[in-house]
UniProtKB/TrEMBL annotation:
Biased composition (Low complexity): 237-259
Species of provenance: Candidatus Ordinivivax streblomastigis
Annotated TM spans: 12-31
Taxonomic superkingdom: Bacteria
Name of this chain's protein: PEGA domain-containing protein
Biased composition range(s): Polar residues: 260-281
Region entry Disordered, spans: 227-281
Keywords: Membrane, Transmembrane, Transmembrane helix
Length: 340
């Protein structure tokens, strides 16, 4: 009887482990990226951009990884003295997904995982051939740089985008397109930097609120503990001397309590945190002006104004550091005015 029970337990354990083995099969077996081979008609090093990932100075043929999640994977390739070459890789259904059916009742869950990360797709072809067209036209080279830079911009690789826009600008500085594209990159950089600063400021604000809350709870606990000790001390005395002593104790402890409360409110009060957040926003505004000076120097840069702003930023930061707060220091506070 005991052996039969053990055999049944083993069978159930084996049955229940099946979903764990076969769950999200497409994700486990195929992965979220797929390798494909890229060939071409050139032997010189190629710059490749594949689904936002960069492959620098590669020699064809080479192997790259495309993202299964994308409906269509995009491959862009640039070679000096050739026009920009682009190819797209279409996807089809990955039949490995059906292995999720072995997961019985958890089949919908595993299907969702494969759908969410794109593992249910696979490339229609595993080999891509790039046919590069040579060119001697400055206009075609200019357009290739602009197009390639735009591909990088779409992938949020802003430094690479700026590099190719600058190459286009060097070819034809009169053309407004290159200058406009460069301005777009600077604006995007500025936006992302401001977004990062705002996130840091928000994190610092919540840390300050938690600090205030902790200080308030600590002060409340101290007050309750003092009140309880006074209550127990005063109940034991019946004589006038005891009452006087108790009264002195109350007076003394009250003064101590007021002193503790006063010291707590000095650092960490709601009003002070509010003031600090106001100064943090002011600090961020000063930082924004310095970034604009660097991004558009011909329009905003003024050396004396830069120094004044940096002095104001330093004063704000040092004021709150002296009060015991953790304060974010911007790199722009020490900027020497040289355009980056």
């Amino acid at each position: 009887m005991e052996k039969a029970t053990k055999r049944n337990c083993l069978r159930w354990a084996l049955f229940l482990s099946i979903p764990l083995v076969f769950g999200s099969c497409a994700t486990i077996i195929s992965g979220t990226k797929q390798k494909i081979t890229v060939t071409g008609n050139v032997t010189t090093p190629v710059q490749l951009l594949v689904d936002g990932d960069t492959y620098s100075n590669v020699t064809l043929p080479t192997t790259v990884k495309i993202k299964r999640k994308n409906e269509v994977s995009k491959i862009s390739a640039l070679v000096p003295d050739y026009k920009l070459e682009k190819q797209e890789v279409s996807k089809m259904f990955n039949h490995t997904v059906w292995a999720n059916a072995a997961g019985t009742v958890l089949f919908p869950v595993f299907m969702y995982v494969d759908w969410k990360n794109g593992a249910y797709k696979t490339a229609e072809q595993n080999n891509i051939h790039l046919e590069f067209t040579p060119t001697n036209s400055e206009e075609e080279v200019f357009n290739s740089f602009i197009d390639f830079g735009t591909e990088y911009y779409a992938a949020d690789q802003l430094n690479n985008a700026l590099y190719y826009y600058q190459l286009a600008y060097d070819i034809d500085s009169v053309n407004d397109i290159a200058l406009q594209k460069k301005d777009e990159v600077y604006d995007r950089m500025f936006y992302l930097e401001q977004k990062a600063r705002a996130k840091e400021a928000k994190t610092a604000m919540w840390l300050d609120i938690l600090s205030v809350t902790g200080a308030a709870l600590q002060a409340t606990g101290t007050t309750i503990q003092t009140a309880q000790s006074l209550k127990h001390g005063s109940s034991g005395g019946a004589t006038s001397n005891s009452n006087n002593y108790s009264g002195n104790s109350i007076s003394s402890n009250s003064n101590k309590n007021q002193s503790a409360t006063s010291s707590t409110s000095t650092k960490g009060s709601v009003s002070e945190v509010t003031n600090k957040n106001t100064d943090s926003n002011t600090y961020s505004d000063w930082e924004t002006q310095l970034i604009k000076m660097n991004t558009y120097p011909e329009k905003y840069y003024n050396d004396s104004n830069r120094r004044h702003i940096q002095d104001q930023m330093k004063q704000i930061r040092q004021k709150w550091e002296k009060r015991g707060y953790r304060v974010y220091k911007s790199d722009w506070e020490d900027w020497d005015g040289i355009i980056r």
